[in-house]
From TrEMBL:
It catalyses: tRNA(Trp) + L-tryptophan + ATP = L-tryptophyl-tRNA(Trp) + AMP + diphosphate + H(+). This is Tryptophan--tRNA ligase. It comes from Candidatus Nealsonbacteria bacterium RIFOXYB1_FULL_40_15. L-tryptophan binds at residue 132. Homodimer.
Length: 325
């Protein structure tokens, strides 16, 4: 089965991103035909600085390569290097009902967030996303719950195209992330995010001293018992989840190990586990940062592989719709 996922051009990956999604991608690439791309065209819909975009693309590529995306096992490239994405998106614009786009939750949210920049790209974003997926005839797309609506629209577009021009695309399914939701270190009732408070999350490439400081100051709960109870003890429960996922120990085993110990010793050990677990990522990132030409070559090579698949699909689509005789 072919799997595809687009990655926004930001290098700010935290452990919540890794444990909640990236680990799943790495497992998928071991057994499936995976395609990962830097979604630079999608990023144009939000305010950005042109002079910073190229560097952001390289930085994102470095971060995801360091996190484990393997160009020997997966196709990895930059979206704009394969122009067939936008060619197919335009064709899909002619079969996608505008009412479907206007009801997209993300469009409504982005319109409120960027009131001074409500561009057509925000509205047609899901059409380009559908093109990203169907161009490679992917069978499944790993996404979070907030993207399921877009996958349903992709299925709708595939169905409408097939009805109008004949069977061409299968309808992909969403693969919901199996990873646990990692919460903020400063407010365990909120999801970990790249917010204005740098103490709420741990970067995948964080330095050891910073990791230890953030874990030791992470919000816990009243009492000193290391017990998993998300409703009554959200702080320590979040830290137990992180401990469990990095150590591969069960929650019950962790509770048993720290039954007679307090929060301080638990946090000290958790910091050690995270620091050790993230060390390979830090080292790989440094290697790629010192050889950006290698990263650019990986992206260009991936684009060539992707383009071969994309051209076959566009040729088939053109024949179906009656252009390029």
């Amino acid at each position: 089965m072919r799997i595809i996922s687009g990655i926004q051009p930001t290098g700010k990956i935290h452990i919540g991103n890794y444990l909640g999604a990236i680990k799943q991608w790495l497992e998928l690439q071991k057994k499936e035909d995976c395609i990962f791309f830097i979604a630079d065209l999608h990023s144009l819909t939000c305010p950005y600085e042109p002079k910073d975009l190229k560097e952001s693309i390289i930085e994102a590529a470095i971060c995801y390569l360091a996190a484990g995306i393997d160009p020997e096992k997966s196709i990895f490239f930059t979206q704009s290097d394969v122009p067939e994405h936008t060619r197919l998106a335009w064709i899909f614009n002619t079969v996608c009902p505008i009412g479907e786009l206007e009801r997209m939750t993300q469009f409504k949210e982005k319109s409120k967030q960027f009131r001074k920049n409500i561009n057509a790209g925000l509205l047609t974003y899901p059409v380009l996303q559908a093109a990203d997926i169907l161009l490679y005839k992917a069978g499944a797309v790993p996404v979070g719950k907030d993207q399921v609506q877009h996958i349903e629209l992709t299925r709708t577009i595939a169905r409408r195209f097939n009805q109008k021009f004949g069977q061409t695309f299968s309808e992909p399914r969403a693969i919901l992330s199996e990873g646990s939701k990692i919460m903020s270190l400063t407010d365990p009732k909120k999801k970990m995010s790249k917010s204005s408070d740098p103490n709420n999350c741990i970067s995948l490439f964080e330095e050891p001293e910073a990791i230890r400081k953030k874990i030791m100051s992470a919000v816990t709960d009243t009492g000193k018992t290391v017990k998993y109870s998300p409703k009554t003890k959200p702080g320590i429960s979040n830290l137990i989840t992180i401990y469990s996922l990095f150590s591969e120990k069960s929650v019950k085993e962790i509770e048993s190990n720290y039954k007679e110990k307090g929060y301080a010793e638990f946090k000290k050990d958790l910091a050690d586990i995270i620091i050790t677990s993230l060390q390979p990522f830090r080292e790989k990132r440094k290697e790629f940062l010192s050889n950006k030409n290698q990263v650019i070559q990986i992206l260009k090579s991936g684009a060539e592989k992707a383009k071969k698949i994309a051209e076959r699909t566009i040729s088939e689509v053109n024949q179906k719709i009656g252009i390029n005789l």
